[in-house]
Structure formats: C-alpha cells, structure tokens
Amino acid sequence: RVFLRDCVCRRLRGYSSLPRLPFPMGCATPPTMSRRCRGRPLTHLRCRALLCVAASAAVPLAAAQFQFEIPADLFNQGFQQAQQPSRRGGRSRGSGIRVPRDIHDNYQWMKGTEWLWNNWREVRFEADGSFDAPTDSCAQRQCKWSADQNQVYITWGRDGVHWVKPNKMEPVEGNMLTGKREDGERCEAKFLKKELADEDLDFYEVLGVDEDADPKEIKKAYRKLAILYHPDKCQGKVEVAQEGENVELECATMMHRVNLAYEVLGEEDKRILYDAGGMEMVKQAGDDQGGGGAMDPFAAFFGGGGRRNSNRGQDAQVEYRVDLADIYNGNEIEASINRRVVCRGCGGEKGKSKPKCQSCGRCPDEIRMVQRQMGPGMIVQQEERVPSKEKCKSEDTVLKATIERGIGDGESIRFPRMAEQSPGQIPGDVIMVLKQKRHPVFTRDGKDLKMNMKISLKEALLGFTKTVTHLDKHEVQVTKEGITRPHSVKKIKGEGMPVHNFPSDFGDLYVEFTVEMPRSLTPEQEKAIAELF
C-alpha cells in the first residue's frame, strides 16, 4: 500500500524511479514487489507488470492511517512519460539519442517559423525553445525543440524524439525538413512562413526612425503610430514594411510592437543595451539586476562585494586643457576620444554577410550572473565570464560640451554612457576634468585675477596711465599717480573673473608693479639726479 502510494506521489512530482523503502507505519508490503521493484525505473518490465495489474484493477488501497485509490490511467501516463527522452540534455532514456540543451547558432533562424508537418497540420518552432503542434502533449507544454551543429531535435511529448534537418539554412519558400521519429518512421515538414518574434524585430524600423534619432524624434514617431493603430481606429489587418518587404499584420500586433519598441528605445539605458545586442541583451541585463538592482546583503560574503548594478561598465576619465579666455567668456568645445563600441546587428550568423560588420572584431568576454549551489539549501549568485557572440570595433567619438563662465579649474563635466561599450553592460560615463592653460598675462586666483605690470623708473617716480587688454578684448585703464614702489599692488574692482553660476558678479583684478631700472646713466642724467636729490 505504501509502496503504491509513494510511487504515485513520486510520479506526480516528476520522479522517474520507484521509491526506495523501508516502509513507514508498519504496513504490509507485497514481498515480491518490494524485492523486484525497489528503486528501479518504471520501465522495468517486471515492475510494470506488477503495477499495471494493481492499477488496472483500480483496487482501493486502505490502511489505518490513510485511504488512497489509484486510477488505472495514472500509471499508463507515468509509463509513457518514463519512456520519453530526457529534456535536460544528454542521452534520452532507451533510445541512445543525445538531445542538446540549447539551440545552436546555425539554427537560430528557425525561431518563429511555421511548417506543414507530414501534409497534416501546421507546427511552430517558438523562440523560447517550445514546440507547438495540435497534439495533447504540446497542449500540455510537453513539447520542446533544440539543435546542435548538424540537426534539429524535437521532444514531442509521448511520441518521443524526432530529429530532422533542413535542406536550406534559411527561412525561404521550398525549404523542407526531413528526418526520422524515434520509432524509425520517416517524417518531413514544408516551410510555410516566419513570424518575427519580439526579440527579432528592428525597433527602429517599427517606429520608422533612423538609428541616430534623438529622443524627441522617437517620442514623436511613437505618438503618431499609437494613434494610427489604436483599437478604436484600426481594425483587421494593415500592410507594413518588415525587413524590406511589405507584409500584412493585425492592428493589435502592430500596436503591441509599437509599444514594445518605444518601451525600449524611449529609455536611454535600454536603448544602449538594445543597440549593443538586441532584446536578448535587454532581457539579460534585467535578469542580472534581479528586479531592480537592489543590493544583496550576502554578496559581500560570497564574492559579490555588495555592489549594485553589476551590468554597468566602468567610468572613464579624460583631461581637457582649456584656455582662461574660454573660462572667462564661456564657450562650446569639442573633444575627440577613441573608444570601443558594439557593432549593432553584427552578432551571430546574420552579421557575417553585412558589409558594415566587416570592420568589426571580437568583443571582450561577457559577465553573466549565474546561480550556484554551495551546499544543501544554499544557492548564491556569482559572476561568470562567457565568450561574447557580439562584435566590437574602435571608433572616434566627438564629445561636445559647454564651458560655463567662471567654472573652476579642476571641475569636471560628465558625459553619461559615453565610456567604452561591452555586450550586456550599460556603458559607464566619460568624466572630463578641466585643466586651465597658463595665460601669458593673467593668473587666476579663485574669482580674482592677478597680473604683473612693468613700469619705468620715470613712471615709478612721476606716475602713469597704462591700458591693458582684458580676456574679452575690452580695455582696462591702470592709472597711478605719484611714486610707485616696487612690488606694490593696485586693486581694480570688478575686473576679475565672473563668479560661476552668478555670471553678473565679478571678482577683482590685482596689478603688481615691477620697476625696471636703467642699466646705465649718462653724465647728464647723473648730474640731474644729483641736483634733484
């Protein structure tokens, strides 16, 4: 009784083998069954025979502690599931077929394709690896597909594994899948069409904007299309451009695509990730954030270091030498930097045939967050480096900035997301540190200016009026009456630097005088000075 009860429970939970006993509660157990079937798979012939006899009779099983009735079809379903190939990769049980876990790059083009199977019904290879066909197994989501380098494998629920191969490696008319079923019967399918999945859409094409469109253009295009495809104004199908061809799509489908495109392109971080690796990169970054990027309190103990936003790249710092006149007057500047960028749309097999991708090379390894089991009941997240499927290149980028009037020496200007790009990461910022160049006349001291003025001995004794050309080309008069002592300083109010963020306020100009003595005197000069003093 306990044997059959536990067996049913294990089967419902997905176990493929019978439970190992001892039996609880001191219940009597058929000795032949426990000896022959303990711990053996349901496909074992003797166990199947014994269990089928018990199950087909639908005998109520009772004990002091419980009462349990086994339906006859429950074990039949269990036996059929036990004969299915493993979906986890490796060899399927009983067939010797090694079913891959993932979909090889060679067969990425099959995602979203529809085929006519054996001149019977339409089937579909979904982008998430599920297989859709009008059978009970597929309706119960028991059908999957995967591919290795050479062929495609379909795990078709109770019908076992099918392996097929196309005669053309692209979704075109006339393409055929041919292969065999697990029982040896031949099978074939004729290509019908391919409906682009969300991750295969070109969102720029959906919104009808260029790849370098600014946020205002993207928002304007979205609003226009949202009105055009709104359910109150659009019913049935419309003709739209898709991958260079005109196709008919439902209004609801277009509305969904327009909303999805704006959701990605309308947010700067998502747009950068999309440009770097498409929707797969956007989804991967969202998974790495863990639903909002909150700090993991245990990360410091398990290698995470308590960091936030691990999918964000490092900031880069550059130094820019700026003229004092630009700081005084304010100015627009341009600086060119060389950085790594991800080539948009050049990853995988599709990028090999695109001319714009010929100059692209290998990207650095990507950093992915993976879960690892460190012990019973303990699962931690760790970073793992994996080879990137994307392509990268070096590119000269021009940074444009405004030098504000009176900005301080050593102040910085931040350019968001303009640092080097890496697949799966939001680029860091470029931080431009302003360093003031030496000026031939003026020296800056905070909001004040200083300068040195040379005067002759005569001017030092008799006074003078001189003119100085300021940083904005206006003339400043320096007047001194009487005797000017060497290294004395004259303050000229309001002729210093403009105060940052208060451009109508100015500091002061401090003029230090240096008296130039004559190298020699004539006899007449000596006599005149002697008579004077």
UniProtKB/TrEMBL annotation:
Q: Name one GO biological process term.
A: protein folding
Q: Which residues form the J domain?
A: 202-278
One Pfam family here: DnaJ
Tell me the SUPFAM superfamilies matching this sequence.
Answer: Chaperone J-domain, HSP40/DnaJ peptide-binding domain
Q: Name one GO molecular function term.
A: Hsp70 protein binding
Q: What's the superkingdom here?
A: Eukaryota
Under PANTHER family, the record lists: DNAJ-LIKE-2, ISOFORM A-RELATED
Q: Can you name this protein?
A: J domain-containing protein
